[in-house]
Amino acid sequence: MSGTIWSVDEHLDDILAAVRPLEPIELQLPDAQGCVLVEDVVVEIALPPFDNSSMDGYAVRVSDLEGADEEFPAVLTVIGDVAAGDGGLPGGRSVGPGEAARIMTGAPLPAGAEAVVPVEWTDGGTGGGPAAAMRAHSEAPEGASGEVRVHRPVRARAHVRARGSDVRPGDLALREGAVVGPAQIGLLAAIGRSTVKVRPRPRVVVVSTGSELAQPGEELTGGRIYDSNSFALTAAARDAGAIAYRVPAVADDAATLRATIEDQLIRADIVVTTGGVSVGAYDVVKEALSYADADDAPGSGVEFRKLAMQPGKPQGFGSIGPDHTPLLALPGNPVSSYVSFELFVRPAIRALMGLPDVHRPTVRAQLDVGEALASPAGKRQFLRGRYDAGAGTVTPVGGAGSHLIAALAQADALIVLPEDMTSAEPGTETEVILLR
Asked: How many CA atoms are closer than 13 Å to the CA of 332, on its beta-carbon side?
């Protein structure tokens, strides 16, 4: 099918049909961040595991505070401290009539207590007016005894977090398919899970090609340019949820390129190359990968295609190595490379993760332009743009040239002009792919 013009959808469908989610593994919580759960997580303990105080204050009996105010405060005997991590009052003592226990946020409600009054509702044991805070126990241990004056009544269970008020044993904490982010890790830790079964984050190796490429920080000599693609694509792979490795630019030598890629396969779930896929005499990606060496698994190799799209007409897809590691070969022009990543590589990464929806969100918006935009017949054009959600409009940024990289930093969307549209007038409603 080398002479066939592929549509964008056909090429993407071919990629997604060949990419399978990675096998699940058990990971420690810190290592599971960004991964997708492959199990329902059921709660085994109550959270919180005991009634505890939501305030720094005093644990009291409700009847002791009836009618209390600042002129006639309730005077209670302080029988001890309950700090977070304590099992209750020393000796298992209960709060009896006319008594109170000084209690800290998160500490278990002692036996006999029915509510907590904030320290600001009391004199803090000083005998004066309303207190702003408690004195540190290390500085004033006497605060755990003596008397406290309470200036307000309190309702039963006030400022008490009930056992199981967050989750109870048997509750479903997280569903299969959830992405493990910071909040999910916090919940898993709170219910006592130290590991979780997930699909690992895909490992993506990014290789740029071209003898003209220099690394940022090096001095540019005649005819050379800085390698931006490998940095942009590595960052894009991480943004998509992958663990990404950037390989410094490889010179235009087919044997060197193939050896470099084969050396990287040990740490790759997917390989992405940029450059060398067009029809020039030095397009070494095609030369190196469009056939299978005897050492490869049968059927491995990359098919290079022409797509009905702009930018990004030349593309390659296939597999390499004994494990048939997927390889996507992208064009070398910066805009073509980035657009191709968003359309083809990002969905492949998300498919490897096992996510049900691999696509960026899309909206419909009206073109905010001063004059009609031309689009090539028979090709789907992708223009960089800025989307205004409030106005429901999208404005192109930068020109249509595939080498114009500056506008990428300003764009937050791709404007899609379909194959049958050769002129997009101001106000035309079109599809917009949101990038942020």
From this structure: 24
